[in-house]
Every structure is written in structure tokens, then in C-alpha cells.
Amino acid sequence: VCRAPEKRRFPGGKTEEEERMKLKKSLVVLAVLGVMAAAGFRIYAHCEIPCGIYDDPMRMKMIHEHIRTIGKSIHEIGHLEAAEKPDANQLTRWIINKDDHADQLRDIVTQYFMTQRLKPLAPGDPGYEKYIRELTLLHALLVEAMKSKQGVDPATAEKMSVLAAEFEKSYFGEGGR
Question: What is the chain's alpha carbon radius of gyration, rounded to the nearest angstrom?
Fold first, then answer.
């Protein structure tokens, strides 16, 4: 009498095939997480529910800090590139740092100010000119953040700083925050 071989069992009573499927599922989850990480997937710190919990002065401080970090990164990249024997690893770190802070600045400008804090107004509505001015300043800030990712011109960080200060003055008024 010929019998089919008994299926090998693992701890917990699972068969080899069940264990293999479990492993495949785990690998798929890891692959998806790896792709998300490589693509720069982020969980944003501010919701879009809207929750009604806003801290505009803190966001402006964050924008200014990102601009200073971008400026320092640009300076360090220039310093490293001018060296007789540039440190490629350190250069790469500063480039990644610069680009990461440009992305974080972009996220605050778009996800926080443009989509949640600036209320759309129609031409003729009270405050329309201020709304257009602030949108224009934020758009110009986004363009400079993009330029900071494309190169290492110190003037880019300086322009970003001026634009952020102009937006802050318009947004909070002459008296500040």
C-alpha cells in the first residue's frame, strides 16, 4: 500500500505550505514598506480633518528654521566642494539634509498654510488683495525651495528668508504674532 508522504508540521501545527505563505506575506509587507520609505512617504504632523488646533507662530518658526538649515547646508556643500579632497560621504549627507528641509518647508507651506489657513476669497471680497499677496509670497517661497534642491546658490536661501519674513509680516500684521 502506497501512502502519500505526511506533510511536515511546524510548531503551532502549521504545515510547510502555510509557513511558506506566511513568509511570502511578510516579505510583501516589508517590500511595500521599503518602497514607501524609498519614495519619501511621510506621515504629516498636522491633520486635514480639520481639527481646529493651529499654532501659526510655531509653523513660522519651523519655516525659518528650515530656511536656516538649508542655508547652512548650502554653505557646507560649498565648503566641501572647494576642498582639495572632498569627503563624498559628508557631501552627500549635506545634500540630503538640504533637500529634506526643502521638502519639510514645502509641506508646511502647502499642507498647513495654503490648504488650511488661507481661506479662499473671490475678487471684490474684503481682504482679497491680502489673500492674493500671501498666496503669491507662499508660491514664491515654494519656487525658491525647489531651486534650493536644484543647486547650491546661497542667494536662494536669502530669498527664502526675505519671502518668509514678508509673508509673516502680512499674515500676522504689523504688530507681529
Answer: 25
